[in-house]
Amino acid sequence: MTERKEQTTTCCIAGGGPAGMMLGLLLARAGIDVTVLEKHGDFLRDFRGDTIHTSTITLMEELGLGERFLQLPHQKARELSALVGKTRVRICDFSALDGPHPYILFMPQWDFLNFIATEAKKYPGFHLHMNTEAVGVIRAGDRTDGVVYRKNDEMHTIGADLTVACDGRDSTLRRAWSLEPRRYGAPMDVMWFRLPRSGDEGVDTGAHLERGRMLVMIDRGDYWQMAYLIPKGTDAKVRARGIEAFRQSVRDLCPFREPARVEAIKSWDDVKTLVVEINRLETWHRPGLLLIGDASHAMSPVGGIGINLAIQDAVAAANILAGPLRAGAVSRDHLAAVQTRREKPTARTQLLQRIAQRRVIGTALAGNRPIRPPFWLPWLLARPPVKRRIARLIGIGLQAEHIGGDAAARAS
Hints:
The chain has 412 residues and is of the alpha+beta class. The chain contains eleven helices and 20 strands.
């Protein structure tokens, strides 16, 4: 029996992350009534993905938001490097990119999402509900007719012509239909924490690989965002050795002259573990339901590209679906077209991540031989064609989306 719909909208989006907020903005600009449900009361959470790639900056410019967007707090990374054993290797030089933005940004995700929300609220068809958790779907046979959600400990329903699951890799709406992605595994998990930063330290965003250990450092202006990589499933063992043993492991890999700075890790409360996973649904849609972003394909943190893949999904979805939504005629063929557009670049990107995990990270963490790069690697990475290809792969991606079609910007 179909549940009673207390309210209705044209498109209901579960999840106010990068995919959900971007899709909400684009559909609202296209004159469509759209409701975004976000389970938290704000966007302020630590250790979310904060990497904004060149492709996303370009999208902001296409929306006429580029200048204001770049006024948000951020740090630019013009290259990415790694210390492999004792050898410094420049992995990516973004100066090889054509265009006005030869860099990527590290921007707090809460600033990014608040910016998108502020812009979206300028359109009367956009509705953002915070502290509102999607807990299930309204079913009509094999069709999704909307969302069941919890707000203030009360259950409510909202009907929708289309429901879009943007609620992450543990998607509630995906589970509601018992959809299981194919899982590809990963050799590592990541322990995130912060260390204070002081002035110009002459240290760039990058990684340090030693036998059995790997540390990634991201310049966040007044602090370092640190990622200590551990073999998959060993979080409990690392914590059982004690916080001082962990601090010493970090000291061994840090380039700082004053290793006492690591004392900023006061307790395990300062260390958050990300269980790394790569997965992908075989089918990203059901009648009345589309899954995008992590809900349809969880990405590894390798390359920091998860946010940008999710945003590209949202742009493709808006381009394809805005017209049918406005006409009240979204079919499964339209939903399948979104998957067709985004599946190949997603699968290829995941394949590259899996290769990097297996050949670089997995080898380093195995700790069975000294870490040193092949003698020819720095030469190869410095070759102009290789530099351009790597810069484009990381900064732009395998298939960049652009604002167009029925989702093209309209005057507010």
